[in-house]
Structure formats: C-alpha cells, structure tokens
Specification:
The chain is an all-alpha fold. 70% of the residues lie in helices and 2% in strands. It contains eight helices and two strands; from the N terminus they run βαβααααααα. The protein has a two-stranded parallel sheet with strand order 1-2. α2 crosses α7.
Length: 171
C-alpha cells in the first residue's frame, strides 16, 4: 500500500488548519508505516498529485464519452478504431487533457498518457463509467468536478478546453 501526505488545495482553508491536518496526517502515516504487516510505503505529495492527475486525465476523456454515447469502454475503443467522429472527439479531449496536465501537474509524454488511456479501455472493456450510471439513475454526474477541473486549470494556463466545456454543457 502506498500512502502519502494529505492533499491540500492552497487557500481552501485557513493556514493553521492546513498545518494541523499535515501534522496529523504525518502521525497517521508514520503509525501505518511502523506496522510491517501492512507493507506500507510512503510517497511524496508530488507523486500523489501526478498519479491522481493521470487518472483524472483518463476519466475526463472516458467518462463523458461513455455518458454521451451510452457505451462501455470497449465500445469507445471500437469507436476510436471504426468511427471517425468518435476518434476525433477522443483526440480533442486527449489533447486538451494532456496540455493541461503538462502545464499544471508535470510533463508527461503523450505516448505515456495514451498508453494509460488504452490500458483503461482494454482492461475495463465491459465497464460503463459512473457518469453514465448517474445519468441513467437521474443523479448529477461528476462531470463538473472532473472536466470542470480541466477547464478551470486550462484557463489558468491559457489553454482553451472547448471540447471539455462543450461536454459539460451537454451532459
């Protein structure tokens, strides 16, 4: 199990609260690491953000497409191969996500992120994203949070994320 410091968004809470949460999390992390049966290894905050960012970039692509087309990851993969409009939509979402990731989190080769996207589609080919399931149940989806984050971070870096914004507006 990998464990690291508590993620804190600068300015989201008073500084003294941030310091208290960091101190408490350090104690918890060290306590868990001291239990050898758990096989816990510590990772730094930057690595946590990097790993979560890669997952978010993939979810920002697959989630809304799954919801919009009412399909599984395997069907998205087939659409990329067989349908030019699906291929173009994925390409645009991928490019926007990749550009934001590189500016906001840390550089990653396009090929590496593309490998991760392909891995998620092939490993989870029967999976329908939670965005689709929430829509089918009449619940709000997390598109505002997932794709909204891409759009907001893109604005901060002067990156237009019109495709992500368009999907937010539709879904």
């Amino acid at each position: 199990m990998r464990i690291g410091p508590v993620a804190i968004v600068e300015g989201s809470e008073p500084r003294e609260s941030e310091v208290r949460r960091q101190r408490t999390s350090r104690y918890l992390i060290e306590t868990l690491r001291s239990c050898h049966a758990l096989n816990v290894c510590g990772i730094d905050a930057r690595s946590i953000v990097y790993e979560r960012g890669k997952t978010l970039a993939v979810e920002a692509i697959l989630g809304p497409i799954s919801a919009l087309l009412e399909c599984t990851y395997g069907e998205i993969e087939a659409g990329i191969r067989d349908d030019p409009s699906t291929r173009e939509l994925v390409k645009r979402l991928f490019t926007e996500s990749w550009e934001v990731f590189n500016k906001d989190i840390r550089p990653i080769k396009k090929e590496k992120l593309l490998e991760l996207l392909s891995f998620h589609m092939s490993r989870n080919s029967d999976y329908a994203n939670a965005m689709l399931l929430h829509m089918m149940l009449g619940r709000s989806s997390e598109i505002d949070w997932v794709n909204g984050w891409i759009v907001d971070r893109g604005k901060r870096h002067g990156i237009a994320c019109d495709t992500h914004q368009g999907l937010i507006d539709i879904i």
